[in-house]
């Protein structure tokens, strides 16, 4: 039997925490009875600088429930960094970990199958969403578009996989050797290269509260996922620049022809349109290059990803 730990990042999750602990406790006890996991398995909740009673509830559940452990980060560091903080802290405590959001919208019934796949020799088991009907329409459409864009940019990732996955201790030790600060775990973990497989994950509606992943955060994650693993946007700028040169050459030929034939007509609209078109392209190009330069700036400083204020462990 393996010692399993679930790792759940929490940001203002006071409305769902008790319910999530109840569901995971029932699952743990069933898996222990089936001899899939050991009795000293645990569920670890990582408080990512919540402004509500999230840490108080985690502390309360820790006192009342033998499976509950907690990690309190000193301040909010973001979803990906909070997951990393949990994984790197817990990797010495368990044989394998499962990362799952605290709202448990992912199907926790996949976890027993993940453990069986681990026993079958897979170090990484991805939860792949086979149905996203519980997600809002806009989120479904943007997520699918993002996965397709990632694929076109040669970013290695698992289609329709978010952050619900099992990692063996060996996989965690290998992940710990990656020093980068611009974390995009969905692209980073497939680079480990250990034996892996997938399980079907049917998303359910939240028990209470609202998702903390706003549109702005999703767009930021998407941008990070592309710029952290692909240089194709830079080559795209170069190719578009070449296209602009071809168009400019064509316009020059047309203007020369018009002057020779005396058919040239002064055009304010075409001039302004050209200025805005080229100006917009230049600004977008500078923004893309700036994103890469900004990432270099962050990486070279090598600041810590997180600071842990308190740990609750049985």
Helix content: 40-55%
End-to-end separation: 19 Å
Low-confidence runs of at least 5 consecutive residues: none
Give me the oligomer status: single chain
Number of beta-strand segments: 8
The strand line-up of the biggest sheet is: 7-5-6-4-1-2-3-8
Helix/sheet category: alpha/beta
Estimate what percentage of residues fall within beta strands.
15-25%
- What is the global morphology? elongated
Order of helices and strands: EHEHEHEHEHEHHEHHHE
The average pLDDT is: 83
Characterize the largest beta sheet: strand count, sense, and whether it forms a barrel: 8 strands, mixed
Compute the CA-based radius of gyration.
25 Å
Query: How many helices?
Result: 10
